[in-house]
Specification:
By secondary structure, the chain is an alpha/beta fold. It has 2 domains: 186 residues, TPP-binding domain (Rossmann fold); 99 residues, no CATH class. The chain has a 6-stranded parallel beta sheet with strand order 3-2-1-4-5-6, covered by helices on one side. Helix 9 crosses helix 10. The N and C termini lie close together (7 Å).
Length: 309
Amino acid sequence: MFSKRIVFVLGAGASMPYGFPSGADLSKDIINTHETTIKPLLKYFKVTRKQFEKFQADFLASRLNSIDAFLEYRPEHIAIGKLLITYHLMLKEHENFLLYSLQEKDWYKYFLNCLHAHGVDLLYDGQVTFVTYNYDRSLEHCFARSIQSTESIPYEVAIEKLSRIPIIHLHGQLGRLEELPYGVSYPWLSQLAVNEEPLVENLEELELAKNGIKIVHEGSGDTEEYEMANSAIEKADLLVFLGFGYYGKNLQRLRLKEFMEDVCGTHMGITKSEFANQIEPYFLNKNIVIHKYDMDCLTFLKNNNSILS
């Protein structure tokens, strides 16, 4: 079993090896979406062309990197924003992106193989919690598929077993796997531009995924998910950030000033000055090792292999 109680906090960078965009890239995708490409979606969700264009113009003019941050300030755009987030992320949900991801960055595979090498059964270990800001379900689907294949059991049983591992989506997710299968919308969404009349059940699936998303201010820190995350962090011996952007409000909601144990993690493109002024103030504990040079999740885990033992 793990020698410490560990909470892994995941940001968008943790899902990027599996085809999902960074926060900044998702924002670009949303701004560059042409109205004609998603015309059937706008019709079904009763979004007018004027509303769509106003949303895009306002988001572009805001110059904010994060669609979540923009929607926090502009709640009148939440419905359209959630629709565009769902559309672009569901387009990335594809089994092949997980199976044939960039091998040099596949940290899910490395994580699982390290556990097998050390004889750790994640299902019964009880020492690990995942806290994620991501809407996608790639982590739990990957783990469920691994359980299914190694134990030769039905996928539904694997999902039920996986429920023993706390995976907390702080801002919601694109539907629960038992309700909305992974990759279910990719076939028809990828053909949406040439298929102006998708099936009603397809649109209902997308609506289910959309309704699973919570914008940041809707999860203000006193939700059940945040309470679960804060409880896990309070009990942890080690906090590990993977692919995380260190957005101030997210750090604040995790109550990290109350956490006095070890903290480590990755970063991409954060300068020493930015770390000192924008990240460190959220921690009273100064025993923080956020790597001082750009490092993806897999490289970080390989260089800190003792975490996974």
